[in-house]
Design brief:
Elements lengths: L1 E2 L2 E2 L1 E5 L2 E7 L2 E4 L4 E3 L1 H15 L4 E8 L7 E3 L8 E8 L8 E7 L6 E3 L13 H6 L3 H9 L14 E7 L2 E7 L5 E5 L7
Antiparallel strand pairs: 1-2, 3-4, 4-5, 6-8, 7-9, 7-12, 9-10, 10-11, 12-13, 13-14
Amino acid sequence: MAGPSGPAYLSQSSGFLYEVTNSHHMFHLPDPEKFRMKDKLEEAIKRAKEKNPAAKLVRIFGMNLNPDGTVMLGQQGKFTPRWEYAFKDDKNGEAPPQFLTVLFMAPKVPMVNANAGNVSDMPSFSDEQLGMLANSDLAAKAFLAIPDYKPFIGNDNESIVYLIQDNKPVIHLTNWKGQMVRLDAITLEKL
């Protein structure tokens, strides 16, 4: 999305998120919308590749998970609901890795950080693994199927994290009660 003098970005003012298209005009963002992990995955990959064609996905982080496995993006006055896609370019071992993130806090305007300091050097997902990842709604259902586990309520301390551990994709889920589980990110079997 481009404004009259450049690309759009997000700004915070008085507790509200605004879409800014240039230094003189601010527009209120549209109503909040729910998104599953895969709803923003392709756009995140596209945005990362625009900044660094060699970037590979290493982590997906969702915060404020709802019972249906979605995250409500664009809530006025709330700054924790997000889908964050973290990438690295390992420079083929020739130089220190470069890390970047594509962050969705609002439905339509991702924030790209081409020098992310919140990403560590971890294994990346293969294209085959990415195509087989279970979506967040299915992961939330698997979590709720565990006896005595409480449902997600969209709380600030509820999260879902996709990453590679022991050479396979896994999902870590945590609810508001601090109940955690680690699932295979493809089969959703408890690990």
